[in-house]
Structures are given as structure tokens and as C-alpha cells.
Design brief:
By secondary structure, the protein is α/β, with parallel strands linked by helices. The protein folds into three domains: about 5-120, no CATH class; about 135-320, 3-Layer(aba) Sandwich (Rossmann fold), CATH 3.40.50; about 325-425, GMP Synthetase, Chain A, domain 3 (2-Layer Sandwich). About 35% of the residues lie in helices and about 30% in strands. The chain has helices spanning about 5-20, 25-40, 60-65, 65-70, 75-90, 120-135, 150-155, 170-180, 190-205, 220-230, 340-345, 380-395, 420-425, and strands spanning about 95, 100-105, 110-115, 140-145, 160-165, 185-190, 210-215, 235-240, 245-250, 255-260, 265-270, 275-285, 295, 300, 315-320, 325-330, 335, 355-360, 365-370, 400-405, 420. Strands 4, 5, 6, 7, 8, 9, 10, 11, 12, 13, 14 and 15 form a twelve-stranded mixed sheet that branches. A four-stranded mixed sheet has the order 20-19-18-21. A hairpin with a 2-residue loop joins β18 and β19 (about 365-370). The chain is globular and about 60 Å long. The structure holds zinc ion. Zinc ion binds next to loops.
């Protein structure tokens, strides 16, 4: 299915104009077209014109009501079998008619299926061009490192923009010479791949030439961001996108903003001092499936207002997913430790750690993987990490936790996260 370049251009202009509006104005403006879709969606029939009174939604309720929640009459079973087949064959071009089916990788074992129609793809491409790649009359080349070729990018190859796909299934060093030959102005990849590329530039003593670096797909850790910016000599921008949609982008001043000109963002606070929240989204541009009052399980910290001119909410950081919060039973009470505290406990314990993973594998067992700058001090560093984590757990009255170490392993196919709760996943 080919998307229309003319439509992309029209959506691009429309999004360029809407970005500066406040969310309430835009929601009002998009309401009529959205109401038409609500009418076509069995689940929301009775909610037309009752804005804001939608029932609470999340991925599991969404999946339970899949057949009633899409405006296209697509059955969950059919969509699921197609999505699973694409995962197995790694051919992600599966379609039902002009609709693509995508599977979300839920860490909770709770997978979601999301449908995208032609119009939604055109809007997405326009939004990426407007908010991520940026417009320029200069000819530019974009290298994107992904796990599967997204032919949407290539469909907008034009006189001004040339895209090239690098498959992250192949070892990154094998791509290095080709990347130098292509010499793109824009580099798009997940943080772990960006780090490998930066290390290659350092090891081979080559001068980086990128004008723009964009981190996608995984949480960009602050220490990784600093390292990348040091090597590349450029700011690293972020795209916050999940199967539920393209949620936030980095502005001209470097802040990550929610795309509130088509998303209504509400906050479900997770802690007493309201520093963390789950975003509750209502997406006014999605038409294949309705996403209304939908709670994501990403843990977001809100940042201070930005002076770039955009009125939208600033994300200070994405801490991780609530599925990965460590949960322990202490005297019949549940004690929850947020990923940031685990991260900090590891990072402050030694300067020798370049990357790590802390995984809760059993109710009282944690496995740690360390990537070290210097292998000589391995045992010493492991002890420091163990002490630091034990101290953190004791602060929460969590006692007798077994902490074991294993080799640091990371496959580019897995979504990398430093703090993971695998125990809950297997429940
Ligand atoms: Zn800004």
C-alpha cells in the first residue's frame, strides 16, 4: 500500500500550524471529525458528544474489547494471528486490506494489537517529518538503524530526503564502513545502537559528522545521553513512541514535549509527592481504533515549562514501565521500589560500570549483569553493587534478598531496559 505524498504534505502543513496551539483549542477543533469515528465504533456509540466521560481504559481492557473498539469491524483473532505471524517471519508488512497490524511487546506478558490505516500512516509520516526530522530546503540523508525495515520512511524518499535502512540484526561494526560511505546528516537508532556507533567512532578515531542524532525505541539513560553528546558533539533528540502512538518529541530547546495538539494528556499520579505519573491519553487523530482515557503504564516525570514557545507538557524523564517496579512482600504488605532508585543504587556504587541490568527473577532474588570498563576490578565492583543494592532494600525493610551476578548480555532485538521485573511477568 502506497501512501500519498500530497496527503503527507497537507498533514505536515496542518501539524506545523497546530503545534503551537494549546491542547484545549485543538481538541475542540478536532472534536467533530473524531465524533464521526466514535459513531462507527460499537464500544463508543453511546459516548458521542459526551466528551470526557469515557470509561477508564488500559491495554488489557482494550484487548478484551478489541472487536468493539475498532471502527473497521476487524476481529481480534484474525488480527492476532497475523501479528504473530509477522513476529515469527520478521515480515512486518502484514496487512488486512489497507490496514497494518502491529503487536506491542508488553513486558507484563500482556500483548496489545494495534491497527493502522492509510490516513494514520500519512499523518504519522507528516508528524515525524515535522517534529523529528525537521524541514529543510537542503538535501539531507537519513540513516535509520531498526530491527525491521519500516518502508514508511522509504515511501517519503524525495529530492530533499534520502533514507537508508540498516538492519540491527547484523552486527553494528559490519555497518560502519557503509555508514561512513553514506555519510548521513541524520542518524536514527535506539540508545544501545547509538552507543555502539559512538564507540566505533572513538575506536577507529573517526570524526563524527552527524547534524542530528535521534534516539528511539528505548529509554535514553542520562549517562548514555552525556556520553553520546560528548562523542558526537551534538545534542541527542528523543522520540517517545510506542504502539499506542507517537507521543512526544524533542523541541528546538531540547525538551521532550507531549504532542498535545492531537493528544489529550491526563495524569494518574503514582506517588505521594506527585513526581511520577502514568499518562492517560485520548488520541484525536487515531481513527482505526479509538484510544480514549487510555492509561499507559510508562512512568513519567514532568519537567519545568519550556521557553521554546510550545505550550505542551514537558517530560523530564521516562523512568520505565510500571511492570518493572520491584515489588516485595514485607509483613503482608507490598513494598514497591521504583526503577530510578535501583538505577541510582548501581550507578553510585562504582565509576567502573558502563552499563548494567538489574532483574528481579524470584520474589526474593535479584540477578545483576554488569558491563565494566575494566575487567580487572570485577569482583570488587560486584561487591560494591551488592552492598549498595542491599542498603537500598534495607531502607525499605526488604531483607534477605539474594543478589547474584551473571554476564552482561544484550540482544538488539530485545527492548533494552536497565531495571526489569521478570518475576511478575511469569505470574
Ligand atoms: Zn520546548
Amino acid at each position: 500500500m502506497k501512501i500519498s505524498k500530497l496527503k503527507v504534505l497537507l498533514y505536515f502543513i496542518s501539524l506545523r500550524l497546530s503545534r503551537r496551539f494549546s491542547s484545549t483549542k485543538v481538541v475542540f477543533w478536532r472534536k467533530n471529525s473524531w465524533n464521526r469515528i466514535l459513531k462507527k465504533t460499537p464500544f463508543y456509540h453511546s459516548y458521542v458528544d459526551k466528551q470526557g466521560a469515557f470509561p477508564k481504559m488500559n491495554k488489557s481492557i482494550f484487548m478484551e474489547n478489541f472487536d468493539q473498539l475498532n471502527s473497521l469491524g476487524i476481529q481480534k483473532e484474525r488480527a492476532f494471528s497475523l501479528a504473530l505471524k509477522s513476529e515469527e517471519t520478521r515480515d512486518f508488512s502484514s496487512n488486512i486490506g489497507s490496514i497494518s497490524v502491529g503487536l506491542s511487546s508488553g513486558t507484563s506478558g500482556n500483548k496489545g494489537i494495534f491497527l493502522t490505516g492509510k490516513r494514520e500512516k500519512e499523518i504519522w509520516v507528516a508528524a515525524i517529518l515535522d517534529r523529528v526530522i525537521g524541514f529543510s530546503f537542503r538535501k539531507r540523508k537519513v540513516a535509520f538503524f531498526l530491527r525491521a525495515n519500516n518502508n514508511l520512511y522509504e515511501s517519503v524518499n524525495s529530492k530533499l530526503l534520502t533514507f537508508r535502512f540498516f538492519d540491527i540484526l547484523d552486527p553494528i561494526p559490519e555497518h560502519f564502513e557503509k555508514l561512513l560511505d553514506f555519510s548521513p546528516q541524520i542518524l536514527v537508532a535506539q540508545p544501545s545502537v547509538l552507543v555502539s556507533i559512538a564507540q566505533l567512532f572513538e575506536a577507529k578515531k573517526r570524526k563524527p559528522f552527524f547534524k542530528k542524532i535521534i534516539s528511539v525505541a528505548e529509554v535514553l539513560e542520562q549517562d548514555q545521553k552525556e556520553y553520546l553528546e560528548g562523542v558526537f558533539g551534538k545534542r541527542v533528540d528523543q522520540v517517545y513512541q510506542c504502539t499506542e502512538g507517537f507521543l512526544a518529541h524533542t523541541c528546538s530547546k531540547g525538551s521532550l514535549h507531549f504532542n498535545e495538539d492531537w493528544l489529550k494528556i491526563e495524569k494518574a499520579y503514582l506517588d505521594k509527592n506527585q513526581s511520577r505519573f502514568h499518562p492517560i491519553i485520548t488520541d484525536y487523530l487515531r481513527t482505526s481504533q479509538i484510544l480514549a482515557n487510555y492509561e499507559l503504564n510508562d512512568i513519567i516525570h514532568e519537567g519545568p515549562k519550556c521557553n521554546c514557545g510550545l505550550k505542551s507538557t514537558v517530560i523530564e524523564k521516562i523512568e520505565g514501565r510500571s511492570d518493572d517496579v520491584f515489588s516485595f512482600a514485607v509483613k503482608e504488605n507490598e513494598v514497591r521500589i521504583f526503577p530510578d532508585f535501583i538505577r541510582r543504587a548501581v550507578l553510585i556504587s562504582s565509576d567502573d560500570i558502563s552499563n548494567f541490568k538489574v532483574v528481579l527473577v524470584e520474589p526474593k532474588k535479584v540477578v545483576v549483569e554488569l558491563e565494566l570498563k575494566d575487567q580487572d576490578g570485577k569482583l570488587k565492583t560486584q561487591n560494591l553493587v551488592k552492598n549498595s543494592l542491599t542498603k537500598l532494600f534495607l531502607k525499605y525493610n526488604v531483607e534477605e534478598i539474594i543478589i547474584e551476578f551473571r554476564e552482561f548480555k544484550h540482544s538488539p532485538l530485545d527492548k533494552f531496559t536497565r531495571v526489569k521485573n521478570e518475576y511478575q511477568k511469569t505470574l
